[in-house]
Amino acid sequence: MWNSNIYQDQDLKQNDINIELHELNGFESSDEESNIGLIKSEVIHSSSSSSFSFPCQRLQRLKNLVTFNSKSSSSSSKSKSNYIYLIMGLNLIILFIISIIISIKSTSPIIKPIIFWKDYLHSNNQLQNLKANNLNNLINYKTHLNSNETSSETYPIHSHNDYWRSIPLFNALELGINSVEADVWYLPTINSNELYVGHKKLLLSQYKTLDSLYLSNLETLLDELNQQHITNGLFNGVLKNSSKTLNLIIDIKTNANETFNQVLSQLKPFIDKNYLTFYDSTTKEWEIGPLTIHISGNIPYELIKSQEKRYTFIDSKLDSPEFQKQYNNELSIFTSSSLKNLIRSKPNNDGLTQEQLDILEDKFHTAQTMGIKTRIWDIPNHQNNQRDEITMDLLKIGVDMINCDDLKNCIKLLKEFKEI
Predict the structure, then answer these.
(1) Is position 268 within any domain?
(2) Quick one: which of 127, 234, 241, 226 has its CA closest to 173?
(3) Which N-terminal stretch is annotated as signal sequence (predicted)?
(4) What residue numbers bound the domain in which 360 lies?
(5) CA-CA distances (angstroms) from residue 30 to 70, 94, 170, 211?
(6) Counting Cβ atoms within 10 Å, is residue 349 exposed (0-12), middle (13-18) or buried (19+)?
(7) Do 208 and 321 lie in a common domain?
């Protein structure tokens, strides 16, 4: 006998399915029609199969799948949009960087705002402020020269990257430092009369030039200090109570010959007033002036060598394998090299090893025998103790000039060395 309850249960379940199918119709949209159709087919198939157990639960799982797929589709769409925006943003950044690189390499005058981008962060009165500051610096330094309270001692210290100091040139002069450095760039398409001062091209400023930071200040000082010449023909120097020369190292960053010719053009007032040290290659005679110019970086070797009267001198390369053949004391007053190029190994934390000292001492002896003074740069600077130990080691083996970032600390080390 057939159990009527079975038919009743099946009728109830079929009603549930019809209800669920009706609800599924509510889910339909243009994006989901294909999925819903598949689910409907699955429901109908399930209802007709012999394994028609728990069709409602199965249908519920399918409904959950639809909802999940719908949310996933929406999330995926948003992710794709975000990804597209990200790619577009990265492309814009890359294009901007490329345009800057092209601009820096380019010689077009159109790129002037990019070369001097830092200037646009300041007021339009910066040039006037710079001139006012220069005047104040000159006044303050002349007060320093006339003061009886300040030391008149001069130190064989080189102010490395001097233009980075709060007051270029004058910070060094007030301490009695007798060597300063300016890295120069000649950009004739922007201004054929200027030499811009800076470590990197991207950091140049139209307000920071060799003339504005150094030459105009030095000329004004020398003019005022030498209104009346000393009877023996010597000029007063810019260092306090001293006729000693100030060394200005001009590091050429652009084309050697073009930049050098512009340097000579800007030095002409000093040459005309006999302020520069020079060597006469005809008479083989020297005349020491209150200012001595050294050329480093991209050196126009042949141009300097060919000068009959030599007003600029080569900062020769001490690490050159052809040092003795290439240089002499008529071309070069100072020679220099990075520490690592000479010793070819890392120094210890407590200073140089004996092997490293022997290498350097031999190099110093070679140069000094030729009448050329020595300077070592790129001394490790991240540990003060190591830096000071290496500096003291260099002094002990006879280096002629200390390359220095912390000027006051180098003065302290020199005084300690003299007391040994």
Answers:
(1) yes
(2) 241
(3) none
(4) 138-419
(5) 12, 39, 78, 74
(6) exposed
(7) yes
Encode pLDDT of 366-414 as tens digits.
999 999 999 999 999 888 899 999 999 999 999 999 999 999 999 999 9
Is residue 70 located within the same domain as residue 142?
A: no
Q: Return the C-alpha torsion angle 208, 211, 215, 219, nearest 10.
A: -120
Q: Which neighbouring-strand residues pair with 248?
A: 180, 293
Whether residue 302 is found in the same domain as residue 410: yes
* Residue at which a domain ends, from 37, 57, 74: 74
**Do residue 188 and residue 337 come from a single domain?**
yes
How many angstroms separate the Cα of 292 from the Cα of each of 6, 230, 333? 115, 19, 10
The residues facing 155 across adjacent strands are 177
C-alpha neighbours within 13 Å on the C-beta side of residue 341: 13
Residue 301 DSSP label: H
Under DSSP, is residue 184 helix (H, G, I), strand (E, B) or coil? strand
Per DSSP, 9 falls in state H
Return the ∠ at Cα 209 (arms to 224 and 195), rounded to 5°. 115
Count of structural domains within the chain: 2
Provide CB contacts within 8 A for 382, sequence distance 6+.
Answer: none
Is residue 252 a contact partner of residue 303, using CB atoms and an 8 Å limit? Answer: no
Are 153 and 58 members of one domain? no
